[in-house]
Amino acid sequence: MNRRSVAGADDTAAPTHSPQEGMIGRHRIAVLDDFQNVSQQFGDWAGLQSIAKVTVFNDHLVDEDALVKRLAPFDVLCVMRDRTPLTHRLLHRLPHLRMIALSGPLTPTLDIKAAESLGITVCGTASSSTSQAELTWALVLALVRHLPAEVTSFRQGGWQVSFGSDLHGKTLGVLGLGNSGSLAARYAQAFGMRVIAWSQNMTAESASRHGAALVSKDELFGASDIVSIHVHLSDRTRGLIGARELALMKPRSYLVNTSRGPIVDEAALLDVLQQQRIAGAAVDVFGTEPLPSDHPFRRLPNLIGTSHIGYVTAGAYERYYGESVENIRAWIEGAPIRTITTNVREAT
Q1: Which of 53, 155, 197, 227 is exposed most, by the fewest CB atoms within 10 A?
Q2: Which of 76-80, 125-129, 231-235 has the highest mean pLDDT?
Q3: How much of the chain, in percent, has pLDDT values that exceed 70?
């Protein structure tokens, strides 16, 4: 087990999902999936030492039985986005759990109805409105200028092994014009690109507000030089992009996904890239995370892959962990803040 205890004694949490008042001894807090072992650098964790024992887990568990065994003693979980799904079944198997400190707004991987039925308080935090879009544009530039190949060649003593593509005058197709999508559209315009857009509920007026032209879904895939995905994962968007949509793309076009892996049919994307029917793709998000080390995506020369780092910045972590610590302290003191419910999906 890869974990690090920060402070405090190993007290036993109460045996039910009861309110925190009247608890004897310190609370037990588990910080999950801290892959880089940096959570304690952000937020006032030291201020919790007198009232809680904090344990940081740097690895990721998938097996539910292993998760139950690990998390059983804790009454507070601090979770990073949707790295560990908190399902109906898992929550019912954690009778000590009474508070979840979630980073960002509600995610589809946390069963908020189950949490409410069990009396578990869920609190969220603010999110970065720019980090995902910034990564999107970094990936766009890396794709069209073949930066991974050029950097690798340079380090090996080589010189100029590819030729890139210009962005000026090309077309960016944006799926979704929310926070990250609208920013990506602005970046594209700054580079002299034409922007077209589509989503299920988009109107011509809403697209125009962001300098984009509303088109049909098929037209977006057929006309774009770069397709960038910015819709949220939901039942409607799961599998939204499959073999049919990818077949519409131009041979020299690129696909960028910094939203969520299951929006794209991974098998269909793998086939298109292996057959070189599009120029390439950049993917930051996957159906299974962390991505298995032997996944074929890791071996494709025409795919740039990153490890879901769209929100992994110092500024975002300061918000996530800093406000999570505030949320935990407020809950312990009996006055929860930034609570999330079935009706309130973002922290206020």
Answers
A1: 155
A2: 76-80
A3: 93
Which of 186, 289, 295, 329 is the catalytic position? 289
Q: What is the pLDDT of residue 170?
A: 98
Q: Residue 99 CA to chain centroid, in angstroms?
A: 21
pLDDT in tens, 184-195: 999 999 999 999
Question: Can you give the residue ranges of every domain in the chain?
Answer: 3-128+313-332, 131-305
- The CATH number given to 3-128+313-332 is 3.40.50.720
C-beta of residue 3 within 8 angstroms of C-beta of residue 57:
yes
Q: Active-site residue 209, yes or no?
A: no
Q: How confident is the model at residue 136 (pLDDT cuts 50, 70, 90)?
A: very high
Task: Give the position of tokens 């690109």.
Answer: 193
Q: Which of 28, 81, 260, 319 is catalytic?
A: 260
Tell me which DSSP letter residue 81 carries: T
- Residue 230 is a catalytic residue: no
How far is it, in rounded angstroms, from Cα 281 to Cα 286?
A: 13
Catalytic residue among 27, 98, 146, 308: 308
214 membership: H or E segment, kind and range = strand 213-214
pTM of the model: 0.88
CATH number belonging to domain 131-305: 3.40.50.720
Whether residue 26 contacts residue 13, with contact meaning beta carbons closer than 8 Å, is answered with no
